[in-house]
Amino acid sequence: MLELIMILAVVAVLFVLIVSRRPADFQVVRSAVMAAPAPLVFEQVNNLKKWDAWSPWAKLDPNAHNAFEGPEAGVGAVMRWAGNNKIGEGSMTIVDSLPGEFIRFKLAFLKPFKATNTAEFTFKAEGDQTLVTWRMFGSNNFIGKAMSLFMNCDAMVGGQFEQGLTAMKAIVEAA
């Protein structure tokens, strides 16, 4: 019995050491070129009520409850959501918005885990097309670092970003 306790203690200490040495900061970035002018693409992101049409999370829980506060678009616009265990609960607030070029969000996740991250969209006109880049970054606490041992955040969230960009592309190119 004492041997088992010693083995478990060593495993626990090793686990804590490994997790504590993991990088705290993370970043997920995906881009897509869309055959549409930057202002049209920008509006899909800057107006939070338009997210439902292209957001990958809207498809994960079509019954999620969304509530909007503040202006309809731009700085101060807020969307709060509450849904199933695939999308959880939280809010996003536009904290910076430069028309046709850049939008920054504060993301506050409440469930399944509390976290605060930043998301940014950049829109770069390339002739009659727009290069859209979606980026999310933040810092992991100990639990986040431990989870990163078993889950690849870049692959998981990056795949959702790719789905969202593909859906947005279909909308703006059809306009």
From TrEMBL:
It comes from Methylomonas methanica (strain DSM 25384 / MC09). CDD domains: SRPBCC_1. Pfam families: Polyketide_cyc2 (PF10604). This is Polyketide cyclase/dehydrase. InterPro entries: Polyketide_cyclase/dehydratase, START-like_dom_sf.
